[in-house]
Structures are given as C-alpha cells and as structure tokens.
Amino acid sequence: MKKMFPYVIGCLCGISLTVIIFIAFRFVGTSVKQSSATPPLKTEQAVESESVTPLQQKVEPKQWVTVVEMNGNSNKNSDTFALTGAKCRLIYKVSGEMSVWVIYVVKEGHIIEQEGGSPDVMISMPSSDSADSTFLMKGAGNYYLDVNSANANWAVKIEEYR
Fold first, then answer.
1. Quick one: pLDDT at residue 141?
2. Residue 35 pLDDT grade (very low, low, confident, very high; cuts 50, 70, 90)
3. Domain formed by 64-161, architecture
4. Looking at residues 45-65, what average pLDDT do you find?
5. Which of 90, 95, 110, 152 is most buried, judged by most C-beta within 10 A?
6. Read out DSSP for 73-116?
C-alpha cells in the first residue's frame, strides 16, 4: 500500500490538473467567442479613410439661371419651358406711353383665353420705362408665357435659383 500511495496521489493530481485545464480552456474559449462577436475598434486612420470617397463631386454654389427669355411689342406666347420647383423670379422691362402690358406664367395645357386666370404682372400706362422683378410661386412642371401688350415694347425673362 505504501508503494501505491504515490501512484494514487499522482493519478489524483493528474485528474485534478486535467479538470482544471479543461475548465480553463472552456472559460477562455467562451470569452474568446464573445469577444470575436464584437467588431474590433477602428483606428483613427481607418475612420478617415472610410469617410473619403474617391469620386466626390465638387458642389457648385447655386446661382440664378435663365430658363426662358423673350421680348416684343405685341401679344406673344413662348414655347413651353420646365421649372424644377426651386426659387423662381420673373424680371421685366416695359416702355411705351398709353400702354398696357400683362403677363401670365401658365401651366402647360391651360389656355388663358378659354379658362381664364390671374396675371402674374400687369402694368398700365408706365412712366417712361418700368423695370422690376417679382418672385413666382410655381411648382415643378412645364409652363409657357402668355404676354398681352398694347402700345408697349417689352422684355421678360424667368430665372430659377439652381
């Protein structure tokens, strides 16, 4: 029995050591699995490189762009033109004594003579030259100008802020 004692102690120590190692690996394996589920932290350089795209477009500042322009000394309609719904203005100049000048900005398909409408600008008997502008509250769509004039020379243009 004395000879078996070191053998039994050795076996018990070996089994204990095996259980401890098994538990340690089990614990470490669990914590490794949990940490692998979370993404690694990004370095500052990695974050900067992600925010820069190779095909970034240069943003141009907005400016007033002429959409349609016409002039005359009698009644006229323009061809249709498109508005995007952005800020829009009508700029005009009228001259002539004892004259009347009316302009409509009309939605395509609408006919003023048949359906009526309110003028966007109306001037009667301007002093020598009348030049001014007004903002238009028009949504996106296709429009045309309907200008009615008697004894007046006129010029008009529509600009959109793009």
1. 98
2. very low
3. Sandwich (2.60)
4. 72
5. 152
6. SS-EEPPPEEE-SS-EEEEEEEE-TT-EEEEEEEETT--HHHH-
